[in-house]
């Protein structure tokens, strides 16, 4: 059964709507956090280590490259967290209207970036 | 004879519910931890004492178990969506299980200070 439907796949003119962007970033951030799990547990490990190894840990975390990775992971956590809460509300049929869905999607992007910035500056 | 349906609706409902329940646990833990950290003096000693309490260790470990179950459902969905060759997908599923079980064991060591 082959249906003839009009197709519009001009990649130069179509773009993902904002709820779609939030959705794919939720997936990307989830995968990033999955691969970073050992690092995240190591960070907890280091923060709870004895006084002398704690100094080594501080040096590791203070490395500029490490700071950039941590900021990235902080954003991944914040985005996954905010978008996840939005999806939980969508699951119970709250905020399904197009305008509301677009507004909450924008809110997720802005709030997660703002939280990353605030916490990033505070921890840097 | 076991009556077991391998096709049809509701097949993934258990996993779907598990992902939502574990997500809710993580949200509660994150908010609670953030509130505790805000009221706590930010020092190495304060953080260590906080984490030395049994109830903190128990709730952290429970939440981490929720994390690993949540990640299993999510990552498995990613492999199912994008990886079409069955053999490769099976290998990635196996890798995910080994990765998550290893992380869980590591988290037990860290949380309980072993």
UniProtKB/TrEMBL annotation, chain A:
GO terms for biological process: tricarboxylic acid cycle. The keyword Transmembrane applies. Keywords: Heme, Iron, Membrane, Metal-binding, Transmembrane, Transmembrane helix. One of its GO terms (molecular function) is electron transfer activity. The keyword Hydrolase does not apply. It is found in: Membrane. The heme is bound between the two transmembrane subunits. Heme binds at residue 80. One of its GO terms (cellular component) is plasma membrane. InterPro entries: SQR/QFR_C/D (IPR034804), Succ_DH_cytb556 (IPR014314), SuccDH_FuR_B_TM-su (IPR000701). Its cofactor is heme. The chain crosses the membrane at residues 21-45, 65-89, 101-123. Membrane-anchoring subunit of succinate dehydrogenase (SDH). Part of an enzyme complex containing four subunits: a flavoprotein, an iron-sulfur protein, plus two membrane-anchoring proteins, SdhC and SdhD. The complex can form homotrimers. Belongs to the cytochrome b560 family. This is Succinate dehydrogenase cytochrome b556 subunit. The lineage of its organism: Bacteria, Pseudomonadati, Pseudomonadota, Betaproteobacteria, Neisseriales.
From TrEMBL, chain B:
The chain crosses the membrane at residues 21-42, 54-75, 87-108. It is a multi-pass membrane protein. GO terms for biological process: cytochrome complex assembly; tricarboxylic acid cycle. Pathway: Carbohydrate metabolism; tricarboxylic acid cycle. CDD domains: SQR_TypeC_SdhD. A ubiquinone binds at residue 82. It holds the Pfam family Sdh_cyt. Keywords: Cell inner membrane, Cell membrane, Electron transport, Heme, Iron, Membrane, Metal-binding, Transmembrane, Transmembrane helix, Transport, Tricarboxylic acid cycle. The heme is bound between the two transmembrane subunits. Heme binds at residue 70. InterPro entries: SQR/QFR_C/D, Succ_DH_anchor, SuccDH_FuR_B_TM-su. Coiled coil: none annotated. NCBIfam families: succ_dehyd_anc (TIGR02968). Membrane-anchoring subunit of succinate dehydrogenase (SDH). This is Succinate dehydrogenase hydrophobic membrane anchor subunit. It comes from Aquitalea aquatica.
């Amino acid at each position: 059964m082959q249906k003839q439907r009009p197709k519009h796949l001009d990649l130069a003119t179509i773009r993902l709507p904002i709820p779609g962007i939030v959705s794919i970033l939720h997936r990307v951030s989830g995968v990033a956090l999955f691969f970073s799990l050992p690092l995240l547990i190591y960070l907890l490990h280091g923060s709870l280590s004895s006084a002398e190894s704690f100094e080594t840990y501080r040096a590791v975390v203070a490395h500029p490259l490490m700071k950039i990775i941590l900021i990235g992971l902080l954003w991944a956590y914040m985005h996954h967290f905010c978008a996840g809460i939005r999806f939980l509300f969508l699951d119970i049929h709250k905020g399904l209207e197009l305008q509301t869905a677009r507004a909450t999607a924008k809110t997720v992007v802005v709030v997660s970036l703002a939280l990353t910035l605030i916490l990033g500056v505070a921890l840097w | 004879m076991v009556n077991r349906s391998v096709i049809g609706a509701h097949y993934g409902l258990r996993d779907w519910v598990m992902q939502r329940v574990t997500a809710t646990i993580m949200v509660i833990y994150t908010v609670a931890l953030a509130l505790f950290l805000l009221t706590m003096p930010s020092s190495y000693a304060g953080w260590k004492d906080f984490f030395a309490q049994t109830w903190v260790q128990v709730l952290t470990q429970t939440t981490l178990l929720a994390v690993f179950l949540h990640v299993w459902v999510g990552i498995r969905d990613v492999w199912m969506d994008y990886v079409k060759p069955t053999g490769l997908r099976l290998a990635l599923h196996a890798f995910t299980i080994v990765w998550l079980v290893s992380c869980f064991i590591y988290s037990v060591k860290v949380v309980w200070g072993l």
